[in-house]
Amino acid sequence: MKIDIDFTNCLGFVTMKEIRDKAERSIHHLDAIINRTGTGNDFLGWLSLPEESQGLIDNINKTAESLRSQAGITVIIGIGGSYLGARAVIESLSYTASFFSNKVKHEVIFAGQNISEDYHSALLAYIDSKPFNIIVISKSGTTTEPAIAFRLLKKKLEDNVATGNINKHIIAITDSEKGALRTMADSEGYESYLIPDDVGGRYSVLTPVGLLPIAVAGFNISDFIKGASYMASITRDNRNAESNPALLYASARNLFYTKGKLIEMLVNYEPSMHYVAEWWKQLYGESEGKEGKGIFPCAADLTTDLHSLGQYIQEGERILFETVLSVKSPGTELTIPDDEENLDKLNYIAGKRLSEVNARAEEGTIMAHVEGGVPVIKINIPEINETLLGQLLYFFEIACAISGYILGVNPFDQPGVEAYKRNMFSLLGK
Ligand code: PA5
Asked: What is the model's pTM?
């Protein structure tokens, strides 16, 4: 099974020939990535992670198993690229028939992605005196949000683990040398995993940053890596533009951008995919939004947001294009029951599965949006599983790198992120 990309609903706005020609003309950007000759080329370690991370699988699964056996809850602390990939995969896989049994086996909670007093108070109150583990993730090891959460949760752990060492409940994932988290891990003796120097946060889901939380949540990281590996073979290792989905996607979005489509909306019809869109927003936003350029990435959960954003998408400024994550088969089965009285007038769909109704909603919405002037790229995903998520995430990563090079920016830095930190530190008197 594999994901594929469909441009049928774009053809009133660009031709397939334009997309293919642009992809052909963009092969040199793929070459620059592979040969490490483009800007930001010291951050290309993620390219070979599908191969390199194979060697980590057994070790990570062992650590995950030991964390699961010693506590029912693991709190993953991190922000941006240090949590979004793991959360995207874990939440996508969670809406299955085994969702509740997985949760019973082990609960994963995220913290450190905000500085909200209410959020952290609620989390500490929920944990109460339960045993729990912490996986604290920060590449720089100095990011304020996760550092605050770690200080709070470490204190809680010290209170909860009355006797003995709290260290077996803490795993740090950070740089091999730099940063406060590295210093703490070394001086306190926490078990730690390394984030390779040449992998930036938003490209790190195939390192322990993504793999350990996914494994702790009970999902199959070997299949996840296999999926990424397959996608690498048809994108990274494929100089045939016509059959390279990453080249085609990067090219289509750049063509839309040059035609005034300044916003890309990543749309799903499965709420479990919400965090894939959050991860994607960070990947594309941080990689492309610089030097006064870049497509603004936003997302919508449909059909939910058809009752909020739907009006704008249909009739507002014509600066949008849409990319739909189109999941073909659900992991469960649910049919709309017949009702003798039919007071709700729903018997015309009685006996149909919800997925069929959802598919017709998707089809009808795409038709309406295209008619309203919004081109739609479709990414067909046969079902939600580890392998296909591995394909999807690697596809978006390599397409993003190509897209950044087409745009003429360094897709691997994020200088603008520092501005708010400078002001916050100065206001806090750091
Ligand atoms: O993609 C990135 O590099 C960023 O979004 C970082 O992941 C984020 O700022 C967190 O940084 P760190 O892992 O250093 O705490």
From this structure: 0.96
